[in-house]
Specification:
The complex is a heterodimer of chains A (about 260) and B (about 300). Helix content of chain A is about 75%, strand content about 0%. Chain A is an all-alpha fold and about 260 residues long. Chain B has about 300 residues and is α/β, with parallel strands linked by helices. Classes of the chains: A mainly alpha (about 260), B alpha/beta (about 300).
């Protein structure tokens, strides 16, 4: 398969994935808008008014970036984990496996689908947030690069989860028991400077903290973490997950007998 | 001329220790219509799985149009179109999209893919259903859609794993006609089936696999010539109380209007009638008790199991 044919194959997978989640937008795009809207109402307006300022910003302005990124993380992960697992379950993954499409194009294609859903939901949630507060953008380049890299990272993680998953339970265990706690403890609702030293150090082991802080920097110019450390960690995770994903597909784990 | 498919000493042992293939050797010439037969669990689908990259082989070689699957699998895959035994498509996707996507995986541009989808969907009588999701198709339509999908990249080698399983007789015959036409146009076809009538009517060459080994690999004509005798069922006009005694044929009375006669290949059918007519037995109709290939197949597999 030459480069232009590989490009066509990549485009095909991304379009297929895009049409898949758009076809079921009531399940994929609408719910995070409603959930995040509720967060804005409860934590932003009702409770936030009593909390006062965080790091010198209104509480709602402080939590908006984290809530947007949380939606991006969960949706990009959910897209690849459900789509890839369903492709295994219905065996339509075989459509790609029997073709000359290389495995790295399959990984990139599914990742592209996850990024697309993450970003579309990100835009939708940002639009909802504008009902509740006026958004200021401190650094658009940081904002866009961090949201895209984060969506990439969690799309890859979703594929790995789906490759190992043997039942529908297996695709909900990691989002429920690992992803959600890490996201909530990643500094969406608070600055880690509020924590005792010990818990600050524990928090530093949470990779989501680096993403949320870098993303918040893009909006309000404030971060608990050095920006270059955030970028390095996110990129390192992406490379590691991509290579791992590729290795699993090349070995046929969970797909070939 | 390069073989369409050449398999040498192919072994597959699954993790649970099951030996699915125990040193298979096969070759399929370009342009052939080839039947791969065998009882359930014989290893047919494992062979197909290996050459289409869905199953990892344990050892051995498979070469597709000169491309070794160990060294140039991507090139080899471009030659193959496959119709698996089980449905393997996204049931929620419209069928035209399934076809267009499949073409995309082979690097075919989207506008060209739509043209090809139109061509094959019309040819297989599914054009009106192109916007329907696959879930809403009948069993026969799903099979035809999968054939259309397998043909989207114009493969030189089409592998059909039980293409007519669960398909009604009318649809089956339409599919046969379609496949014969496709083969005439130069597509090599490998077919696995449990309908031996299908293999006898369509295929020029046959391999029979049993317990992971090839127990026969020859032409259909040669195989059928090996059949020593055929059993015919005769419907007779006058009722009989006991089976007549014939010189050259063994006869059994099934009921008062039905006889079963073993006709030796060398004796021939005319001799049978020469013996029946003087006895006043008027034959209204006759048919083969079983398909000829089926007789041979069962004999070979039974011998294999007894050994």
């Amino acid at each position: 398969m030459n480069a232009s044919q590989q490009w066509i194959a990549l485009r095909t997978i991304i379009i297929k994935e895009f049409l898949r989640f758009i076809r079921i937008w009531k399940q994929t795009v609408l719910p995070p808008m409603i959930t995040t809207g509720l967060y804005f109402i409860i934590f932003g307006n009702l409770i936030g008014e009593r909390i006062g300022e965080m790091e010198g910003y209104r509480y709602i302005d402080f939590i908006v970036p984290g809530l947007i990124l949380m939606a991006v993380i969960t949706q990009s992960y959910a897209n690849t984990v459900s789509s890839f697992y369903m492709a295994k379950f219905q065996r339509n993954i075989e459509e790609m496996m029997v073709s000359p499409t290389p495995n790295y194009i399959i990984v990139l294609g599914y990742t592209g689908g996850g990024i697309a859903r993450g970003l579309i939901v990100g835009v939708a949630v940002t639009t909802v947030s504008m009902i509740f507060t006026q958004l200021n953008i401190h650094n658009i380049a940081v904002l866009l690069s961090i949201v895209t890299l984060t969506a990439t990272l969690f799309s890859l993680a979703g594929i790995i989860n789906a490759i190992y998953a043997k039942t529908f339970d297996d695709i909900s265990i990691i989002p429920t028991f690992i992803l959600t706690p890490l996201t909530y403890l990643g500094g969406i609702f608070y600055s880690i400077t509020l924590l005792p030293n010990f818990w600050q150090n524990v928090s530093l082991a949470n990779p989501i903290l680096y993403m949320i802080n870098a993303f918040r920097y893009g909006f309000i110019g404030v971060s608990d973490i050095n920006l270059s450390i955030s970028y390095s960690i996110i990129i390192a995770f992406i490379i590691a997950l991509y290579l791992f994903c590729l290795r699993l597909l090349n070995k046929g784990v969970g797909i070939r007998s | 001329m390069t073989c369409a498919l050449e398999i040498n000493d192919l072994h597959k042992t699954y993790r649970n220790g099951l030996v699915a293939l125990d040193g298979i050797n096969l070759y399929v010439e370009q342009g052939d219509f080839f039947a791969l037969l065998g009882p359930n669990g014989a290893g047919k689908s494992t062979v197909i799985g290996i050459i289409t990259s869905l199953i990892n082989k344990t050892s051995g070689k498979a070469i597709i149009y000169g491309n070794d699957i160990d060294t140039s699998f991507a090139k080899a895959k471009a030659f193959i179109g496959v119709l698996p035994q089980e449905y393997n498509f996204n049931v929620w996707e419209p069928i035209e999209e399934i076809l267009v996507n499949q073409a995309g995986y082979y690097g075919i541009e989207r506008h060209e893919a739509f043209n090809r989808a139109e061509h094959w969907l019309k040819k297989l009588g599914l054009w009106e259903k192109r916007r329907d999701i696959a879930r809403n198709l009948s069993g026969g339509m799903k099979r035809r859609m999968m054939i259309a999908r397998a043909l989207m990249h114009n493969p030189k080698l089409l592998i059909l794993d039980e293409p007519t399983a669960g398909v009604d007789i009318e649809n089956r015959r339409t599919m046969w006609k379609f496949l014969v036409e496709l083969n005439r146009q130069g597509t090599t076809i490998i077919l696995t089936t449990h309908y031996l009538e299908e293999a006898e009517n369509l295929c020029r060459n046959i391999a029979i696999i049993d317990k992971g080994k090839v127990i026969e690999h020859t032409s259909t004509r040669e195989l059928i010539n090996r059949l020593g005798s055929e059993t015919f069922v005769l419907d007779i006009k006058q009722p009989l109380s006991k089976a007549p005694i014939l010189n050259c044929h063994a006869v059994r009375l099934i009921d008062e209007h039905t006889l079963e006669v073993d006709v030796d290949k060398h004796t021939g059918i005319s001799n049978l009638f020469n013996e029946l007519t003087p006895l006043g037995i008027d034959v209204q109709s006759m048919r083969n008790k079983t398909n000829r290939l089926e007789q041979l197949f069962l004999k070979m597999v039974d011998e294999g199991h007894a050994a």
